[in-house]
């Protein structure tokens, strides 16, 4: 697999010079982008030629230099989250240099109106023009709210409800689904692997939000775009890449820090980088200590819940040709002694922790853009992801410490081509290959006898998974009408040797398709509809798990069919000068749904003393989720914006004639944002959820859900920021000002009590 990936990138890299040689009559366009309010240069602005895969980003001095373009008339656009886009017409004459451009971007308080995403269609488009529901958490919002983890970065996103089993975890619900039914991508590479478990998991908390440029959420099936697991939606974390310099060598140095009251956080991050016109590199090191969570009301300190984390990332960009770049990245997240407070407080454990939890991620990516309508972009990526999760647990009064560890190495190669063969028509097509190799073990150490016993881990020791897929997507836009369509075929193989419960050898394949259309009924007002098929192939966690979960013991299933979905959505979007809004009504039909069912104890002795409840995964039948989501922003004054969103989902297991598990309650947020002169700002919001008392039988067995359901709650937060120097920002946050005791539905730990944090961000 690594040799194949290296070969593909080498072939494209060798071809790049010959392609560039055909472009000798092309002219380079350069310029600068500044902030209209402060007149300071803006870094990271996306500047590109409309209708072509030709673009660049401004450097730390706000300067840009586009790859050469052929003679002709073009429109150059400049975009940055939090600012209104600006366009400039340019005419390129053969043999004459292009005059430098200067863009002045004004701050945009209507974020919903100008958000841009790539996740829904695998190409950069304004979310208003996408005939689906998309949420974007831009970098400006991440800087203002300073989320602690990747999961907490989504707690304020429209249409997303975050459950937290522990303080070092967090699992987003999208349209009523969670865990391995929601796909998570990091820079286009799957974070989900073949061991991702049913129900909530903690893996998004291993994503450091301090290096992210944005979080994008496709609400609704994304299996055509990205394959298995994307039944409820797709969460895409896009990290910051270093910026090439438009002039000489530019060094960058930065530091951020955050302190939280009652000892709940002490964090520091140092960054260092350098950029020239052909290469740029940037690195970050973060040290983060999270103390025990202090909950609201009379709940107090929930100990043990704190942990220690270190994050390291390095990224580099090399311009290998006029229109060709190579990007390299390495991320390493190490979380030490991450406890499960609920297991200690409610389940009779003296110790229950992930110690450690580690994620490593590396990729090399080649991007080529061309002013050729039939092939205007090509991307080839090779990636490696390694996750290591070690769990330690010991019952109160027991002398036996059980240690389990699962290590998954994932290798990936992806290729994607983009074209615009006809006016208004764009096509994206590609192929993906993934391979998982799993190592799993368990050791029981008895402190009284000194005995140490090795045994089968959560998964068989030689477990593996493979997948290969091909996809194609087309988007068409003509005046007020737009349409998307796509199809994908995925083949997946899951194998494992298990002499006790039987070998696993499953290789399902799946075709899925999607279609969507939108029509602009009036200026700024459009209606849309979409239909999408989705699937989730049974993975190693479904087929071969042998181990404890929250309220019993799970034994291997052996044979399962893929889960399938049909998602339907109709909606409307409005974008005006002072108001922006979106409304969606959806229904997702699920078939061959995989769930746990209680089974008799196996006729063999298993190493789980004191446990008498055994479960196995089965295809339980059919279910559906229906609901409604809405979001809106109103610019009351030029500097003041009212914003909010609301979501409701109703899930029903029609086969069992009971509610689906863990369906979030009615929830939403309303807030007010003020952007003052000189860059200071103030933001206040109320976030709330209703009582959730529609419980499945599994919910009633779950110790994390109170009898009768999870009570409703309302939390009031305030955030503020003040620039204290040209490159120094002070930010503040006050959480849960009325100190309400609350818990998000299905969580194993409570929410923050009344608390405050202070952060500082310095760039030089």
Structure explained in plain terms:
With 764 residues, the protein is mostly beta strands. The strands form 7 sheets. The protein has a 22-stranded antiparallel β-barrel. A 5-stranded mixed sheet has the order 10-15-16-13-14. Strand 22 (307-321) and strand 23 form a beta hairpin.
In round numbers, the mean pLDDT is 90
Give the % helix: under 10%
Quaternary organization: single chain
Q: Could you name the ranges where pLDDT drops below 50 across 5 or more consecutive residues? A: 8-23
Gyration radius, rounded: 26 Å
General form: globular
Outline of this structure?
This protein has 764 residues and is mainly beta.
Helices and strands in order:
Elements lengths: L1 H20 L8 E6 L10 E4 L5 E3 L5 E3 L6 E8 L6 E7 L8 E5 L5 H4 L1 E2 L7 E2 L6 E6 H7 L14 E4 L7 E4 L7 E5 L2 E2 L21 E8 L3 H4 L6 E7 L10 E11 L4 E11 L3 E12 L2 E3 L4 E3 L4 E15 L2 E13 L1 E2 L1 H6 L2 E21 L7 E19 L4 E23 L2 E22 L5 E5 L7 E15 L2 E16 L7 E3 L2 E14 L2 E12 L3 H5 L2 E3 L2 E3 L8 E13 L3 E21 L14 E24 L2 E14 L4 E2 L7 E9 L5 E9 L7 H5 L11 E13 L2 E8 L19 E9 L1
Notable characteristics:
764 residues, mainly beta, 22-stranded antiparallel β-barrel, 5-stranded mixed beta sheet
């Amino acid at each position: 697999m690594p040799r194949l990936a290296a070969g593909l990138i080498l072939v494209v890299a060798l071809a790049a010079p010959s392609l560039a040689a055909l472009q000798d009559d092309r002219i380079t366009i350069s310029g600068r982008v500044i902030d209209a309010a402060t007149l300071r240069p803006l870094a990271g602005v996306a500047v590109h030629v409309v209708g072509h895969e030709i673009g660049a980003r401004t450097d730390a001095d706000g300067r840009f230099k586009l790859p050469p373009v052929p003679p002709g008339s073009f429109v150059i656009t400049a975009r940055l989250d939090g600012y209104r886009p600006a366009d400039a017409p340019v005419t390129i004459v053969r043999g004459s240099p292009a005059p430098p451009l200067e863009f002045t971007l004004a701050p945009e308080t209507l974020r919903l109106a100008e958000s841009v995403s790539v996740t829904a269609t695998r190409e950069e488009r304004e979310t208003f023009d996408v005939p689906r529901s998309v949420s974007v958490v831009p970098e400006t919002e991440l800087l203002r709210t300073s989320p602690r983890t990747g999961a907490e970065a989504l707690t304020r996103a429209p249409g997303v409800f975050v459950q937290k089993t522990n303080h070092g975890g967090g699992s987003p619900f999208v349209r009523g689904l969670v865990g391995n039914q929601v796909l998570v991508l990091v820079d286009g590479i799957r974070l989900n692997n073949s061991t991702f478990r049913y129900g909530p998991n903690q893996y998004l908390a291993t994503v450091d939000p301090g290096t992210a440029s944005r979080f994008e959420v496709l609400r609704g099936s994304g299996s055509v775009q990205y394959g298995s697991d994307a039944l409820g939606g797709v969460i895409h974390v896009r990290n910051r890449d270093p910026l090439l310099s438009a002039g000489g060598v530019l060094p960058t140095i930065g530091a951020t820090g955050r302190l939280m009251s009652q000892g709940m956080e002490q964090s520091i991050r140092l960054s260092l980088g350098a950029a020239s016109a052909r290469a740029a590199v940037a690195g970050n090191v973060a040290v983060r200590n999270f103390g025990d969570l202090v909950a609201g009301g009379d709940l107090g300190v929930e100990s043990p819940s704190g942990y220690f984390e270190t994050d390291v990332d390095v990224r580099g960009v090399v311009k290998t040709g006029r229109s060709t770049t190579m990007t390299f990245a390495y991320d390493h997240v190490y979380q030490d002694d991450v406890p499960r407070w609920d297991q200690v407080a409610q389940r009779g454990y003296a110790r229950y922790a992930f110690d450690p939890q580690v994620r490593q991620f590396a990729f090399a990516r080649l991007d080529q853009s061309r002013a050729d309508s039939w092939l205007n972009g090509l991307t080839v990526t090779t990636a490696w992801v390694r996750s290591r999760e070690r769990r330690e647990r010991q019952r109160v009064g027991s002398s036996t410490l059980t240690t389990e560890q699962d290590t998954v190495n994932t290798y990936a190669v992806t290729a994607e081509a983009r074209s615009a063969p006809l006016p208004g028509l764009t096509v994206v097509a590609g192929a993906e290959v993934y391979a998982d190799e799993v190592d799993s073990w368990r050791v029981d150490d008895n402190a009284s006898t000194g005995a140490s016993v090795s045994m089968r881990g959560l998964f068989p020791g030689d477990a593996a998974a493979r997948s290969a897929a091909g996809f194609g997507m087309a988007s068409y836009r003509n005046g007020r009408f737009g349409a998307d369509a796509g199809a994908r075929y995925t083949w997946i193989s899951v194998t494992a040797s298990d002499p006790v419960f039987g070998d696993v050898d499953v290789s399902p394949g799946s075709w899925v398709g999607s279609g969507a259309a939108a029509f602009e009924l009036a200026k700024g007002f459009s209606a849309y509809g979409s239909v999408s098929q989705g699937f989730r192939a049974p993975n190693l966690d479904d087929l071969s798990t042998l181990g404890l979960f929250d309220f019993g013991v799970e034994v291997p299933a052996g044979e399962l069919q893929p889960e399938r979905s049909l998602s339907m959505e109709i909606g409307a979007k409005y974008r005006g000068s002072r108001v922006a809004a979106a409304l969606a009504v959806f229904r997702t039909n699920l078939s061959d749904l995989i769930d746990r069912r209680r089974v008799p104890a196996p006729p063999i002795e298993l190493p789980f003393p004191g446990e008498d409840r055994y479960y196995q995964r089965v295809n339980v039948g059919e279910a559906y989720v229906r609901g409604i989501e809405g979001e809106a922003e109103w610019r009351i004054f030029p500097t003041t914006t009212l914003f909010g969103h609301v979501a409701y989902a109703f899930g029903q297991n029609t086969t069992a004639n009971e509610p689906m598990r863990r369906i979030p309650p009615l929830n939403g947020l309303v807030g007010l944002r003020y952007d003052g002169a000189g860059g200071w700002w103030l933001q206040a919001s109320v976030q709330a959820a209703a009582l959730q008392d529609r419980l499945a039988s599994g919910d009633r067995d779950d110790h994390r859900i109170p009898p009768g359901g999870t009570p409703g709650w309302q939390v009031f937060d305030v955030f503020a920021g003040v620039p204290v120097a040209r490159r120094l920002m002070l930010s503040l946050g006050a959480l849960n000002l009325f100190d309400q005791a609350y818990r998000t539905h299905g969580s194993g730990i409570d929410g923050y009590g009344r608390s405050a944090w202070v952060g500082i961000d310095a760039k030089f």
